[in-house]
DNA sequence: CGGCCTTTCTCACTCCGTGAGAGCGCCTCT
DNA sequence: AGAGGCGCTCTCACGGAGTGAGAAAGGCCG
């Protein structure tokens, strides 16, 4: 929902046309297809402009024009780009399988997170109707590292400068009443996490939900990722915590072994399978 | 690639900026990430322009800037758009399962195709290392209906005017030496396909590969999609043909039953014109 | 056949994107 | 460490590209 208030908003010196074009794409995506008029109304752009931009998108295969139904829908190039993105983030199949095993064994949603540039990003998730993922924690989630279990593991694996930089960009927004929002508190917590090798997060991100994570390390011993689980807090007893930690360490060991064994990154060709 | 000579190229009156922006996106996708300079060189756009456009893409989350590695890679919004596209094409789970069963039973790659606007598009594929898909036939493939088995089924399910329109847009390009390229020949063939209820395609699309398809019908008896398989021609004996037809009809029956039973989220009627 | 909606076209204006060039800052090589 | 190279950003004046009102063309409906 973009407000098209031209006067008030301090327009970044971006390329206005690009922004308009992309917002059209997103409107069509949100609504599952839209007519030009709907877009025009929703975004406040004049009709001819909308048509021109949409035609540009159609001719590049980012949209298709369903003439019969007088609607625009998303085009096929978006699938290819999505696939490319997944290939760039590149979670190897053995790792996927390991997260699947974690999900099965722990009977919780299972996650795998990696660094990407200065960010911490969810790269793979396995869940099921009985054990669903935390709603915002899908592929590509890269916010609020201070309030998630895998985020803490990954922050603990960064240099102090990197942590500073991360927090400068993202801040420490309060997600729930338990979220840590003071830097001192977080630093102390991260020291503990680094010491124990496991991070717990009790309702600091979503009320009623608990997460835990363990780091994945490469041959040099550096944290390169994290395996994590999430579960309703009510299901987490002392015994259950021990059990989950065991599953996490187990998964982490297997994944770490994979990353140590060579095939770390960019194996050139996305090997079959 | 010279950018200097504007007069020679018959520029469509598209929005040039949009085109440039999207081509940047695609370069980054192809190469699995790129620096601004690489993009500038590859596309022949001046560096500042590339930076400006890339920053616009970054600020909309279509790209990310990995400052550490001085590279741009694809952003997370592309995943969401890809997911939206899949939702718009919307192959219901029971249908997916049926194609999976087709793959298992027939021991071939399995396909499901639907109408989308005036197009015929591959909506779902199940394959495996032993039985891989035909290389260009991935999700979103929508060309050369005259040379594919599912394309023939879907053309046979369209009105003559719809077929005319389709062929006007796409033509009948020769794919192999067996491709039908005359309209009369195709019409005759389609009549046979409509009569038999199954379409075969012997090396008309890719040399050495054979495909077959059977239509999926809704409650009104209209073709709304097609189930298909592909296999190396050398594996196709007379007996095997019979067997594959049986599997296809079986899959088609199950899928058709699903579409008759109500739950058709979209009335995938062949809407054209 | 006549209304209504979608889509395309035209055209003059002006605003927006453009791109050379300079300058800054980080990484690397010696 | 210093020097050099490279990646990245900013500025600014020019010019053409995008813009958007308006109207006309094309379809579908009753």
Automatic annotation (TrEMBL), chains A, B:
Name all IclR-ED domain ranges: 77-261
Where would you find the membrane-spanning parts of this chain? none
Q: Does the keyword NADP apply?
A: no
Q: Does the keyword Amino-acid biosynthesis apply?
A: no
Q: Which UniProt keywords apply?
A: DNA-binding, Transcription, Transcription regulation
Question: Which SUPFAM superfamilies does the record match to this protein?
Answer: GAF domain-like (SSF55781), Winged helix' DNA-binding domain (SSF46785)
Q: Which GO terms describe its molecular function?
A: DNA binding; DNA-binding transcription factor activity
Q: Could you tell me which InterPro entries the record lists for this protein? A: GAF-like_dom_sf (IPR029016), HTH_MetabolicPath_Reg (IPR050707), Tscrpt_reg_IclR_C (IPR014757), Tscrpt_reg_IclR_N (IPR005471), WH-like_DNA-bd_sf (IPR036388), WH_DNA-bd_sf (IPR036390)
The lineage's top-level taxon is Bacteria
Q: Provide one Gene Ontology biological process annotation.
A: negative regulation of DNA-templated transcription
Q: Which residues form the HTH iclR-type domain?
A: 15-76
Q: What is this protein called?
A: IclR family transcriptional regulator
């Amino acid at each position: 929902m973009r407000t098209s208030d031209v006067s008030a908003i301090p327009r970044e010196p971006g390329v206005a046309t690009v922004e308009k074009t992309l917002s059209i794409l997103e409107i069509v995506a949100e609504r599952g297809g839209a007519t030009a008029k709907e877009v025009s109304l929703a975004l406040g752009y004049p009709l001819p402009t909308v048509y021109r931009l949409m035609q540009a998108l159609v001719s590049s295969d980012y949209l298709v024009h369903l003439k019969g139904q007088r609607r625009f829908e998303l085009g096929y190039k978006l699938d290819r780009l999505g696939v490319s993105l997944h290939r760039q983030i590149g979670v190897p199949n053995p790792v996927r399988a390991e997260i699947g095993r974690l999900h099965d064994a722990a009977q919780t949603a299972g996650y795998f997170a990696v660094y990407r540039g200065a960010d911490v990003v969810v790269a793979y998730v396995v869940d099921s109707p009985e054990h669903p993922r935390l709603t915002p924690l899908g592929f590509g989630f890269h916010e609020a590292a201070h309030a998630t279990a895998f985020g803490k593991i990954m922050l603990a694996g960064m240099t102090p400068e990197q942590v500073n930089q991360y927090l400068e960009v993202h801040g420490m927004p309060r997600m729930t009443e338990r979220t840590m929002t003071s830097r001192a508190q977080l630093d102390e917590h991260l020291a503990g996490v680094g010491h124990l090798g496991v991070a717990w997060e009790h309702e600091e991100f979503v009320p009623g939900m608990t997460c835990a994570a363990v780091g994945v390390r490469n041959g040099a011993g550096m944290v390169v990722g994290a395996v994590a689980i999430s579960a309703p807090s009510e299901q987490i007893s002392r015994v259950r915590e021990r059990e989950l930690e065991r599953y996490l360490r187990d998964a982490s060991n297997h994944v770490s072994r994979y990353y140590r064994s060579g095939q770390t990154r960019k194996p050139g060709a996305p090997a079959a399978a």
